[in-house]
Amino acid sequence: MAATRTGGPRPATVPNQAMRELRGDLSPREFATLVRRAAREIGEHVSCDARYVGRVEAGEIRCPNYAYQRVFRHMWPGKSLADLGFAPRKTVRRRPPNTGPNTGPAVESTAGPAGHPAAGPNTQPSSDPAAGPATPAGPPDLSHRPDEEDDDMLRRTFLNGCPVAVAAALGTDQSPASAAAPPQAPTLPAPPLSERRRVGAAEVNGVEQAVRDIRLLDDVQGADALFELAGQSLRSAYVLLNDGEYNAETERRLQRGAGELAISVGWLAHDSNRLMDARPFYSEALATARMSQDTALEAHVFSNSSFLARDSGLPREALRTAQAGQAAAAGLGSERLLSLLTLREASAWALLGDRGACHQALSRAYALFDRGPRDADPEWMSFFGEAELAGQEAQCWSALGEFGRASTRAEQAVGLQHPHFVRNRALYIAELAHDRLGRGDLAGAAVQGTEAVGMLGQVRSARIRGMLAHTADRLRGHSSVAEVREFLETYDGTVAA
Fewest CB atoms within 10 Å of the CB: 95, 218, 317, 325? Predict the structure, then answer.
């Protein structure tokens, strides 16, 4: 992984003795293998090798990117980044414009082709004809949790990176201003064949990294601030598909990347409570999957479509799409994917009031989950662990009116959730407030509601806000209960702010 440097005096490199001690008697190559294996266990993708291990131990990487942070926390759950010998990211600043490459502390960033640092979003083609073709800009490093000072800037920087990369590759106008319209089917005119540019690994890697970074940001803070911006990357991916020249392997990866981006944008619309806006993106992704005969992409579309149909109050559609997803996933070798799709089916049966069919589907989902992870598990399923399993079961019992069982499973989901998935933790807490209210526990519902409201400054999800608004409305007639009164005051103050 490459490192970017920031301004100021260059500090002395301090070896990371903590990571060296954790490696023990293993060689750097053996240790790197363990890191990659741990990454696969949580659905993460890192390119760890002996050189990376050496740079970490030498202190050249003072703060790893967010993907590595997740992996290291998975490997050593009781240790903080400081315990692992790393510095807080807020103390390791990025290089300001026009700063030389050899000053300041290192922050690990997304690497471009051949290990070179990926260019920032403002990379411009060279004005010197002798300099050769411009290097396409790639997405900058967003693989960490944004803080209050820089999260908006980082989102815009990253999500404008993919359109600018396309502009550099194809010579089309993809400035932020031109891409600011709500994402729709691409309408940019195709350049003449004689002007088309070759699309290669750099552009495809940019599309694939865009998908990963959107998911990382969504996991941490929800969808509200990302929907419009992610649409820009989607449009750019389809420009690459429609107006570029590439070989068969590049076409396959581009189709998969564009389809995954369409699903991501559809999900962002869903989580932002723009349910009707989500449907066209899923339709686009399904068409891409069918045209490219990509059954894994097709199964992903059906999983999200079933979830959307459930939240839209269309249980029959939710059932059909969940079953279609299971058919598509049958030959992929991923029991965890089949487990998730079977949970989607269980949710549909619950909404239909069929307790027996719901219980049978839940039993199948647990049996599939218990077979464990596989190498064939999709990368996008990193969120699907025991916490999500418990959370979705809670929603089934809630839909069936069994709020005691729902509360138990929702509480387990909160306790099991990995700290990275902040949005899902807030969701489970909001669900727990709803379930406790359903069983008549006013104080318990209010306590959980207050905790969820406290996370709204970080989690930007209209879906979660809607759940809390519903809970607040139902509690307004019970303000004589001290916990309820505190919740309502906190909620109203947060909404007013």
Answer: 317
| Cβ-based neighbours of 327, under 8 Å, separated by 6 or more | none
- Confidence class for position 11, pLDDT limits 50, 70, 90: low
Sign of CA dihedral 98, 104, 108, 113: positive
Rounded to 5°, the CA angle 55-61-63 comes to: 150
Element containing residue 277 per DSSP (H, E): helix 275-292
> CA 314 to CA 299: how far, in whole Å?
19
Indicate the burial class of 268 (C-beta count within 10 angstroms; 0-12, 13-18, 19 or more): buried
CA distance 207 to 411: 37
Show Cβ contacts of residue 386 under 8 Å, excluding neighbours closer than 6 positions.
416
Tell me 59's DSSP state. Answer: T
Give me the torsion for CA of 67, 68, 74, 79, rounded to 10°.
Answer: -130
| Side-chain half-sphere exposure of 190, counting CA atoms within 13 A | 11
Residue bearing tokens 């149909």: 309
The rounded distance, in Å, linking the Cα atoms of 71 and 41 is 9
Burial of 291 (0-12, 13-18, 19+ CB in 10 A): exposed
Query: Is the alpha carbon torsion for 432, 373, 317, 211 positive or negative?
Result: positive
Q: What is the DSSP string of 286-347?
A: HHHHHHHT-HHHHHHHHHHHHHHHHHTT-HHHHHHHHHHHHHHHTTS--HHHHHHHHHHHHH
- CA–CA distance, 230 with 235 (Å, rounded to integer): 9
pTM: 0.61
Kindly report the number of other CB atoms within 10 A of residue 418's CB atom.
19
Nearest to 202 by CA among 255, 240, 256, 158: 240
Given phi > 0 = left and psi -120 to 50 = alpha, else beta, which region is 313? left
- Neighbouring C-alpha atoms within 13 Å toward the C-beta of 451: 19
Q: Residue 315 and residue 353: Cα distance in Å, rounded?
A: 10
Nearest alpha-carbon partner for 89 in 61, 56, 49: 61
| Torsion-angle region of 460 (φ positive above 0: left; ψ -120 to 50: alpha; else: beta) | beta
- Residue 43 is predicted with a pLDDT of 64
Task: Name the 3-class secondary structure at 173.
Answer: coil
Alpha-carbon radius of gyration of the chain: 24
- Compute the distance between CA of residue 19 and CA of residue 247 in angstroms, rounded to an integer: 42
Cβ neighbours of 27 (radius 10 Å): 11
* pLDDT at residue 302 is higher than 90: yes
Q: What DSSP string describes 344-364?
A: HHHHHHHHTT-HHHHHHHHHH
User: Best-predicted range by mean pLDDT among 36-45, 58-67, 189-198, 221-230?
Assistant: 58-67
| Cβ burial, residue 128 (10 Å; 0-12/13-18/19+) | exposed
